[in-house]
Amino acid sequence: MEQKRVFSLLVDNTSGVLSRAAGLFSRRGYNIDSLTVGATYDPKYSRMTVVAHGDDLILEQIEKQLRKMEDVIDVKMLADGEAVCRELVLIKVRAGEGQRQDIIAVANVFRANVVDVGTDSMIIELTGNESKLNAFIELIHNHEILELARTGLTGLTRGSEGVLYLD
Fold first, then answer.
1. Quick check: 75 pLDDT over 80?
2. What is the structure's pLDDT at 167?
3. Architecture of domain 84-154 in CATH?
4. Digit-coded pLDDT (tens) for 117-130
5. d(CA 163, CA 156)
6. Measured distance CA(114)–CA(29) in Å, rounded
7. According to CATH, where is 3.30.70.1150 located in the chain?
8. For the whole model, what pTM was predicted?
9. What is the pLDDT of residue 1?
10. Partners of 77 in the beta sheet?
11. Are 103 and 93 in contact (CB under 8 A)?
């Protein structure tokens, strides 16, 4: 049975790490649903969040291969209820003067922010879990969506247990 798994990797912040991780997936024919990477508090390390799907065997194989990578320091699974995961979406919507209030009302329900207003469009920013973002997109779809950009999932495990402290 196919399922989704969120892998949180702590990696060395060196050139080529992203390429090697993506190469691991492509060489084995695994698809990456989303991938986010950014430096941590310590600039020597980056946090990489990879979302993939497959059956248990494929997901176990992905985890084993990630753990074998030289640049990977730690691999964690971000399970529902044990982690906080978020995604950011920016949506540019066609919005003339007569439509703006309706769009703002929907944005307010979702605690979204209007980050840009033009003469005929608005850009809305929303952060949340995947279902919240999908619900917002579904509601705002009544207006013409001109452009949409999603960051992909990122997250951290809850609590301080199991946090890796590096010197």
1. yes
2. 61
3. 2-Layer Sandwich (3.30)
4. 999 999 999 999 99
5. 10
6. 39
7. 84-154
8. 0.85
9. 84
10. 7
11. yes
Measured CA distances, 61 to 16, 39, 55, 85, 162 (Å): 22, 26, 10, 23, 23
3-77 classified as CATH 1.20.1250.20 = no
Distance CA 47, CA 52 (A): 16
Residue 74 and residue 164 in contact, taking contact as beta carbons nearer than 8 Å: yes
Q: What is the pLDDT of residues 9-34, one digit of tens each?
A: 999 999 999 999 989 888 888 889 99
Q: How many CB atoms lie within 10 A of CB 91?
A: 24
Query: What percent of the chain is predicted at pLDDT more than 90?
Result: 81
- With beta carbons less than 8 A apart as the criterion, state whether 64 and 10 touch: no
Phi, psi of 161, rounded to the nearest 5 degrees: -65, 130
Residues of the chain with CATH 3.30.70.260: 3-77
Task: Determine contact, residues 33/51, Cβ cutoff 8 Å.
Answer: yes
Neighbours of 131 (CB within 10 A): 8
